[in-house]
Each structure stands twice: as structure tokens, then as C-alpha cells.
Amino acid sequence: AEKKDGQGKLTTRETIQRIAGSVIRSNILVQDVSSVSKAEGIEEVRFSAEDLGQRRSFCWSVVDNQLNAYNKDVWVKRDLAPTIMSYIGVSSKKDDALPFARLIYADNKISVFDEDPAYKKPNPEKPLDEQHLKVGIKALARMHAVSFLYFAKNSHPAPLSNTWFTDPDQRSEAKAILEQQLDKVAQALVQEGKSTDEVNRVKSFKNIMFNLYQDAESTNSLLPVLCHGLPTLSNIQFKYGADGLPMDARFINLSSCLYGSGLADLHIFINTSGENVAREDFLLRFLYYETFASILRSYGEKVAFSYDDLKAEFVKKRLYGYIRSSIILSQKVKTSGIKTTSQTVPTPQMSSPRPVESKILGKFLPQAKTTAVAKFSAKIETDRGNDGYNAATKICEMMQKALKI
């Protein structure tokens, strides 16, 4: 229940005033303090304050350290992120921080994170448009680049180990879970009226799923990094400029974070957060790779692999991407009657490609689909309406592509 007087189980108005005075400005006066319990040992505290002549709104998460000693989301933000940033130091850019809520205060009892109310969740039932995808990809590249620098010289902590693949005792359990998850995808295909033959061919992926996941998520990759694990619409927030366009993004719900291949994150984000069409080369080359390389350069490091190397590994993991993303989307599929036909998306006409100037790659002649990204996005949005997208239909699209690999 919300407490309007600022009195929560973890905090009082006086506690918030004291912390604000130490982390914002010594003579700041907090007002309108309210707190809401979000989970056991976690409170959301909102308040306003006059700061340098302007009235600002604040939102903090206050965490009971003892009750959340084994909360991985809290551990990543409170312990791992500050350790990484402290080790690699400040770059020549000011915005090269991990895209998480920032730890602003900690003592023996509590930890406080700045949840910045300017960040908003997108509609989880509507795919991201081009602007949101761009900002999201850049945030993912930032998380991967910063952690890449850290793990290049430091071993990963135990909580980030993917024990499904490293512990032999978990192998049979992991296989069973993956098979159950694939059954959910098969159910979505049945619901969409797909043929028995196609459904059975998808089910045959059970024979390779464990090895497929093991290879795709392995750190034997060009990108051994801190992976979010589930970079989906439910786990990202956007900050907007005065023009209403997204200008920054951050990731939330970090309990799935692992040390693995950043390409797994890329497949999941692109497939589950936006329409899986037309924009792949553009997102990978001009947003992800360039942002990644730019951050490494700002720390005086060079990227040891080319974009073509990155794309080759991305393509190698494509089957994993389709299956993993379909499994994630299958959680959105509601059981209903079986369709007799499946709608397909009309294929738009692509414009001729024009040369693109890249700071890192030089002059580049993209494929037609790269230059038609924005137009194609609008076309898909029109074809499918503005009420979001059907998860089962999208699963069908990805499984059709998976069966052709």
C-alpha cells in the first residue's frame, strides 16, 4: 500500500531527506514523499524538491540489503555495475555508463537506486518503431562494450555463470525444460492453422536444442560480455527529449543476466521487440557495431574484429535466435480456436540503395533493404494496424524461416 506521509518499512521522510542532502545537494528540501512496497524488502519512493531554482520529481528504489542478499537484479546494479565502472574508469565520453538504474547510496542496511521517472516503459503489446529500436540497440551495444572491456582483463563472478551448460548434473533437466518450451511454440503453430507436417518439423528441433543453445550462448564468441538474457519489450525503458522522441534507454529486471555471447542478446532484442524484417543489416552495422567500436575507442582500445566477422557469427546463431525468440513470444500466446488460414504480410517494393557514409566503415553501399528500413517499418505498421502485433503470427513467421536454415 502507498504511504503518503513518506513513512515506509525501510525509510522515513527523514531518511530520504538525509540521503538527498548527501547525494543531490546539502540544502535541498524534499517534499511530497510517498512510498510503495514493490516486493519484499524493496520500496519505491517518490518525492519532489526544489533544485537550483527548478522543481524536480524523483523516484528511488530503496532495497533492504539483508532481505535481498540473493536477489540477482539487485546484485548486478549494486555490486557488479559499480565494480565494472570503477575498474574501466571514465572514458572520453560522458554517456558510456552501463544502461541500468544507478546506485546512488548504500550503507549496511539499505541500497538506493535512482529510478529517474523520465524513463518510461513502452507498450509491451506493440512492436518498437524505428526510433525506439535505434536507441535500444545503442543501449545494448553500450552494455556489451563496457562489460567487454572489463571481462577482457577480469574473470566473471560466479553468479553470471550459465550453469545449465557447465554443470553435468543439470543437463537432463535443461533438456527437459527446453523441450517443454518448444512444445509451447508448436501449440502456437497449431493455433495458427499450420500443417501437421510443419508442426512436426518444428518439434524435431528438440533433438538439437541443447547443443544449439550451448553453442549460441557460449563465451567462445567475438562478444564475451555481460548479457541481459531477456532484452525484451518488458525489460526496457526509454527516456524522451522535448520533441517526444526517445533519446536514451536502460534495461530493467536484470535477474537473467549472464556472462555469454552478446549476439544472443541481439537476436532476442531484434526478434521480440520489433518487426523481424528489413532492418537487420542497418541495426547491426550502423548502430550496434559502430556504437560498440566507438565506445572501445573512447577507452583507447581497438575492435579486434570486423563488421563482417560479427555478421558471420550473427548468421551462425540465427536458428538459435528464431527458436529462442519464439519461445519467449509463446508466453504471450493465448489459447484459442484453431485458424484455418494464416495471414501473410504483403512484400513492399524496395527503393534502390544509395551510398552511406559511416565514420568507422567508410563509404558503404547497403543492400536495398537497409535503405528502405523506415519506409518498410511504416508499411508493416499499416498492414497490421496500430493495435500491436499477434505473437502467434510472428512465431509462425520465424519458424518458417527457421525451417529453411
Offer a few descriptive terms.
five-stranded antiparallel beta sheet; 17% strand; globular; three-stranded antiparallel beta sheet; alpha+beta
Characterise this structure.
The structure is a single chain. This protein is α+β, with helices and mostly antiparallel strands. It is 43% helix and 17% strand. The chain is built from 14 helices and twelve strands. Strands 1-2-3-5-4 form a five-stranded antiparallel β-sheet, with helices on both faces. Helix 2 crosses helix 3 and helix 5 packs across helix 14. The longest helix is centred in the middle third of the chain and has 22 residues. It is globular and about 70 Å long. The relative contact order is 0.12.
Number of helix segments?
Answer: 14
**DSSP helix fraction:** 40-55%
Low-confidence parts lasting 5 or more residues at pLDDT below 50?
Answer: 340-356, 358-388
Strand content: 15-25%
In short:
By secondary structure, the protein is α+β, with helices and mostly antiparallel strands. It has helices at 13-23, 72-88, 130-151, 163-166, 171-191, 196-203, 209-217, 262-273, 280-298, 307-316, 318-330, 368-371, 373-384, 391-403; strands spanning 30-39, 42-51, 54-64, 102-106, 110-114, 119-120, 224-227, 236-240, 246-251, 258-261, 356-358, 362-364. The model is unreliable at 340-356 and 358-388 (pLDDT under 50).
